[in-house]
Every structure is written in structure tokens, then in C-alpha cells.
Write a structure and sequence with these properties.
There is one protein chain. It contains 18 helices and 22 strands. The chain is an alpha+beta fold. It folds into 4 domains: 209 residues, Immunoglobulin-like; 99 residues, Zincin-like, CATH 3.30.2010; 146 residues, Neutral Protease Domain 2 (Neutral Protease, domain 2, Orthogonal Bundle); 153 residues, Serine Threonine Protein Phosphatase 5, Tetratricopeptide repeat (Alpha Horseshoe). The strands form 5 sheets. The chain has an 8-stranded mixed sheet with strand order 5-4-8-2-1-11-14-13, with no helix packed on it. β1 and β2 form a beta hairpin. α2 crosses α3 and α4 runs antiparallel to α5. The radius of gyration is 25 Å and the shape is globular. The two termini are 27 Å apart. Bound molecules: ligand BES and zinc ion. The site of zinc ion (ZN) has 4 residues, from α4. One of its GO terms (biological process) is proteolysis.
Length: 636
């Protein structure tokens, strides 16, 4: 059973939900109804239990008649179970319709309501959701477990264009904006339909002054792809992603199976969006920090597209098996890099990922269960506490290790296809995945391949703790080499006075942004450089003023690492200003950046970290706010 849900989905499960929503920007709430078409799975089931979190429920109907319901006491993580009585004598295999009328409240964790100052255009407010891992229940009563897959239809009324993780029925995306009505003033009803069953965490909504541009059609594909953004960003966003998006998707189709969601659009959100990317079905959400003007952060798009197979297609059964989503996706994302660019790019991505993995493993030294690939969650444990690079990089390395153990891509890719075809549309556990793997190679490889699989130390991969992988992995480091060499020269220069250093701005010429990241990360692995060196490095290479957030993060990690230095204090101030958008309310809410930077500042100057956060607390997404509060020890 899903340890994060209170729903009785083994007895009765939603097949389709109809969402009728009104978005109220003045009151900052969504009000409406959710109508579930449920399938009975067990004779005489007497109630249906939905997950909810901070919803204001006003009425419940079963088959059109008022029903008895009970909102149970709130669990701090799982929320309040909504119990609804059903008529007696229900038979397995039959269906029943349940409608819940409700409003979201000011404590809705899934939604962030931005005022106009927090948008690019400054003219209209903005709303967006983040439901993964367990916040769909804060938007609608739902069986909030990835073990239940639902189709949905939505009729959403808003004074601003509304987007959902589904296929637009009306008004047309490529017609006049806001159906030809006045943006910000006239209410328009947007109709969406998601015919492919999806897990609840892929439910998503956004509403704001956004416009659409289609990417050029790719060969004779029967899907469409395009980009949504505020008008001020649409040009830059189109440029950043138009080359790669359709190429990535077409390559995934070649490696795996055809795309089945029909539409692959990207929405660029305001900077408080708490993730780099989120693979909402038909509509990936991304942070605007990807818009660096050099297309160097498009691997995030490769990642989110690949979730169409691993996650949105084959879904993890619940939080304990989360690595099946992220590990597989990361493995495949890096394979895309190899196919589209070169084997060196694949190896380079593993090298950068490995550093993140080791750092995150070390963070969990006091909670070793989160160092495991397979986390045995207790009922009601918060999956966000376990969120780290572990499922991504331990997972991707396990798959890579299996690929190599079996003899390489030629023998491995046919299996990948079989895996996806076998479980497409289903939700599975690690045990089911492993049984299929053995089954496939028993049939298609025989004893030799099974023996190869048996040589893998499954126990160590699944349940191993500590800060290293069960196997020492070798990666192609040819792209990292120049970066590592430059770092070694800086390391060797530590005893010299800065006035005598032989470094030039042009040292970084020819480095792409990943190589700059690798250079700064390598430097972090040595003893701290003298403060004067760090300041000189910053002024020479402009790494503390770059618009590339990946590079800037690494520089702050480097410069804040030794709290005893003047450089640490100087850059702690700068880092604080950067994260809160210099007080404009345009905070950099991607948790990878803001959580790490707040933690680093905290290590240098606790008061600065806490004061900075408190000043702009309400500009962060509720999820980020909660996690930063924990990181800064403001709550437990
Ligand atoms: N699905 C995740 C984001 C997520 C995971 C949100 C768990 C909430 C809970 C998404 O696909 C992701 O992995 N995003 C990464 C991007 C990356 C690894 C390229 C991110 O946001 O950093
Ligand atoms: Zn992912």
C-alpha cells in the first residue's frame, strides 16, 4: 500500500474525474467541483476515501443525491481523509459517480499565487501548481497515489489564459489569445481533456498572461510541440528550446516507442517555480533560469521529455519506488546525449551527477535510510524529506551497470523497449521491474545473461548505505579533462601571491557551461583556496555575476565553503541578494539553487540566512518555503 495516501484504492478506484473550476485571483482560491467516475473493485465496499489537504468541502453527492461524508482529522503529512458513504450492495465491476464541491484555502500547498510584481510583465497576476509528490490532494479530493491512474476532463474559468496537463479542446491554442476576450478582465472557460490515464501527481494548472508559439513540425510526426511563456519571454524561450525539443522527442521515440500523449508543450514559469522542470503530462513546466541564451541547459528538457516513458508511461507504484521514475529517466536522458552529441557527453553528465550524488549522500549521514535507493517509507513519512540526487544518480548508475554487465547497448536496448511496452500505462514496484528483467533475459539471452545478472549485488544497490556506490564506475572524462586541469593549476597556485598568478580571462574560452561547472566543482574537492584567490577568480571569470544559475551556484558553494574567510562573508551577502532577486519579489525559487544557497549562507552567517529568508518568505512557493524553513532549523 502507498505509505503516503489514506485512500482505499484497492477497494474502489477513480477511472475519470471531471474538474469544474473557477479561478479567483482576488480571493486567491479555486472553487468548484470534482466528479469522480469510480470503478468498484470489491463487493459491498461501503465507502470511498479520498485524500484531501486544507480543502474547504461544502457538499458531497453520490449518483446525484446528497451523501453522508466525514472529513477526518488532519495528518501533518497525508492531510485529511475524506470518507464518503456509499449505498449498500455494490458489486465489483460496477461503477458509481461521486461529486465533491469545495474551495481551496490560503493554506494550499500545491498552488502559488503570484502578484503582478512577481511576473515578467508586471501587469497580471499568475497562478501555478506543483502536485508531485503528494500535493494534488491540496487542489482536489483525489486518490493521491501513483498506483491509481485517471483520465480527466477540466472546464476551468479564468480571466487569464489557463493551461492544464492535458489536450486543449477550446478555445484553440493557436487562435486569438484568451479566446479573443479581454485578458485580465473577461472570464473565459477553457476546456481540456486528458484521455491517457495519468497518476494524480501529473495534474497541473497554470493561469497567467501567456502566449503560445508552435515549434516547426518534425518530419511526419503525429504529435505537436510548442512553447508557452509570458509575451516578454516568448522570443527567448522559443530560441532556447526550438532546436532540441522535437529532436529529443523523436530520438526517444526511436530508442523506445512512439510518444502517446499527442502534445508536448513547455511552459516557462516565473522564477519562483520550485523545480528545474516538472514533467506534467502534455505540458512540461520549467524554470526561467533555463533561458541562458546559449541552449546549454536543454538537458533538463531531455530529462522531462524522457519521463513520457519512465514516470508518465511506466509509473512507480509509490514513493518507495520513486527511483524507477527518476533513475530510469536520468539513464535515458544521458543516453540521448550520447546519441545526439557523443559518448563523451554521456560520460560527462555521469561525472557531474556523481559529485551531486556524493554530496547528497553525505547530507544524509545522520539519516542513512535515505542513502538507500529503495527507501522503506513508514506510513505518513514525508517523501520530500528524502528528495535528493540518490534516486536519480544511484538509479541511473545501477541501470548503466546492468547495461555494461549484460554486454552493452546492443543487447540492452531491445530489453528497454520490452520493459516499456510491457508496463506502459501501469504502476509498478521494483520487484516487478526486476522480475521482468530476469524474465526477459531468461527468454532472450539464456544462461549466460542470467548469470551476468546474478553477478550484480542487488542487495548492495537497493539497500546499501554510506557515501559511495557498490561498484566503482568508470566514465568517459574527455570533456571534463580541460576543466580538471585548470582546477589543478589553481590548486597548485595557492602558495603564490595573487599579484603573481598566471591566469587569464581566456582560460574559460571554449568551455561550455557544464565544463565551467565541472571546473568549479573540482575546485571544491581540494582544500579551501585562500580568500584572495577566490576573489581574484571571481573577478577574472565573472562567475559571481553570470546569468547562468548552475555556474553561479557552484561559485557560491566554493566561496562560502570556508566561513573563516572574508570572501565567504562578501559572497554570502551577494548570494543572498541573488536568491531573493535583489528584493524585487522575483525570487529564484528553484530548490536546487535556493535551498543550497540558503544552507551555504547559514554555514557562514546564520543571521544573514534567516533574515534574508524571513524578508522574502512569502515570495517562495509553499513547498520551497517549507523545505527552507526545515533547512534553516526554523521548524522541524
Ligand atoms: N519529476 C521531477 C521533479 C520532482 C520530483 C518534483 C519529485 C517533485 C518531487 C523532475 O522530472 C525533475 O527531476 N526535475 C529536475 C530536473 C533534472 C534532474 C534535469 C529538477 O527540477 O532539478
Ligand atoms: Zn525527473
Amino acid at each position: 500500500m502507498d505509505p503516503t495516501s489514506q485512500a482505499n484504492y484497492h477497494q474502489i478506484a477513480t477511472d475519470h474525474v471531471l474538474l469544474k473550476w473557477d479561478i479567483d485571483f482576488d480571493k486567491r482560491l479555486i472553487c468548484g467541483t470534482s466528479t469522480h467516475d469510480l470503478k468498484i473493485l470489491e463487493d459491498n465496499v461501503s465507502e470511498v476515501i479520498f485524500d484531501t489537504l486544507n480543502l474547504d468541502i461544502s457538499n458531497v453527492n453520490v449518483e446525484g443525491s446528497a451523501a453522508t461524508y466525514n472529513v477526518k482529522e488532519k495528518h501533518p503529512v497525508m492531510g485529511s481523509a475524506l470518507h464518503i458513504s456509499l449505498p449498500s450492495g455494490l458489486r465489483s465491476g460496477s461503477s458509481i459517480k461521486v461529486t465533491v464541491e469545495y474551495k481551496t484555502t490560503k493554506d494550499c500547498v500545491a498552488l502559488q499565487w503570484l502578484d503582478k510584481q512577481q511576473t515578467q510583465g508586471k501587469k497580471f497576476p499568475f497562478l501555478f501548481s506543483q502536485c508531485q509528490p503528494i500535493y494534488a490532494r491540496a487542489m482536489t479530493p483525489v486518490m493521491d497515489t501513483p498506483s491509481v491512474k485517471i483520465k480527466y476532463t477540466a472546464e476551468v474559468t479564468s480571466v487569464l489564459p489557463a493551461l492544464m496537463s492535458a489536450i486543449r479542446q477550446s478555445p484553440p491554442s493557436d487562435g486569438p489569445a484568451h479566446g479573443g476576450k479581454e485578458i485580465g478582465k473577461d472570464a473565459v472557460t477553457y476546456v481540456y481533456h486528458q484521455p491517457v490515464p495519468i497518476p494524480s501527481y501529473l495534474l497541473a494548472i497554470a493561469s497567467g498572461n501567456v502566449v503560445y508559439r508552435a515549434f516547426p513540425p518534425y518530419e511526419d510526426k503525429n504529435w505537436t510541440s510548442g512553447i508557452w511563456a509570458e509575451p516578454e519571454l516568448i522570443e527567448a524561450a522559443y530560441w532556447e528550446f526550438s532546436e532540441d525539443t522535437t529532436r529529443f522527442l523523436a530520438t526517444d521515440e526511436k530508442l523506445v516507442v512512439p510518444y502517446k500523449f499527442g502534445v508536448y508543450d513547455i511552459l516557462v514559469l516565473p522564477p519562483s517555480f520550485p523545480y528545474g522542470g516538472m514533467e506534467n503530462s502534455c505540458l512540461t513546466f520549467v524554470t526561467p533560469t533555463l533561458l541562458t541564451g546559449d541552449r546549454t541547459l536543454v538537458d533538463v528538457i531531455a530529462h522531462e521529455i524522457t519521463h513520457s516513458y519512465f514516470g508518465n508511461g511506466v509509473t512507480h507504484a509509490h514513493a518507495s519506488h520513486f527511483w524507477l521514475n527518476e533513475g530510469w529517466t536520468t539513464y535515458m536522458e544521458r543516453l540521448l546525449l550520447q546519441v545526439i552529441h557523443s559518448p563523451a557527453h554521456r560520460g560527462f553528465s555521469y561525472s557531474i551527477g556523481y559529485k551531486g550524488l556524493v554530496d547528497d549522500l553525505a547530507q544524509y549521514n545522520n539519516r542513512p535510510k535515505y542513502q538507500r535507493l529503495l527507501v522503506d517509507f513508514e506510513k505518513g513519512e514525508d517523501p520530500d524529506d528524502a528528495y535528493s540526487r540518490v534516486p536519480y544518480d544511484k538509479g541511473a548508475n545501477l541501470i548503466l551497470h546492468i547495461e555494461r554487465t549484460l554486454g552493452g547497448l546492443d543487447v540492452f536496448l531491445p530489453y528497454v523497449r520490452d520493459y516499456v511496452e510491457t508496463f506502459m500505462g501501469k504502476s509498478i514496484t521494483t520487484q516487478q521491474w526486476k522480475a521482468h528483467l530476469y524474465g526477459y533475459y531468461t527468454k532472450n539471452g539464456g544462461e549466460e545473461k542470467v548469470k551476468a545478472l546474478d553477478s550484480i549485488d542487488w542487495n548492495a544497490w537497493f539497500y546499501g548505505e554510506g557515501t559511495s556506490l557498490p561498484v566503482t564506475m568508470e566514465y568517459d572524462t574527455s570533456l571534463a579533462k580541460a576543466a580538471y586541469d585548470l582546477a589543478a593549476r589553481w590548486d597548485a597556485s595557492r602558495a603564490s601571491d595573487v599579484s603573481r598568478l598566471d591566469f587569464k580571462e581566456s582560460d574559460l574560452d571554449g568551455f561550455d557551461s557544464n565544463q565551467k561547472v565541472a571546473f568549479l566543482e573540482k575546485l571544491q574537492s581540494y582544500d579551501h583556496l585562500p580568500s584572495s584567490h577566490v576573489e581574484y577568480l571571481a573577478s577574472l571569470y565573472k562567475v559571481s555575476s553570470t546569468h547562468n544559475a548552475e555556474i553561479r551556484l557552484r561559485f557560491y558553494q566554493l566561496s562560502l565553503a570556508d566561513p573563516s574567510t572574508p570572501a565567504a562573508h562578501k559572497y554570502a551577502e551577494e548570494a543572498a541578494n541573488w536568491i531573493i532577486g535583489n528584493g524585487t519579489g522575483m525570487v529564484i525559487g528553484r530548490m536546487k539553487f535556493c535551498r543550497d544557497v540558503f544552507r551555504a549562507i547559514y554555514g557562514v552567517d546564520q543571521k544573514l540566512a534567516v533574515d534574508t529568508f524571513m524578508k522574502e518568505k512569502n515570495s517562495f512557493h509553499p513547498i520551497a518555503r517549507r523545505m527552507i524553513e526545515k533547512d534553516l532549523h526554523l521548524t522541524k
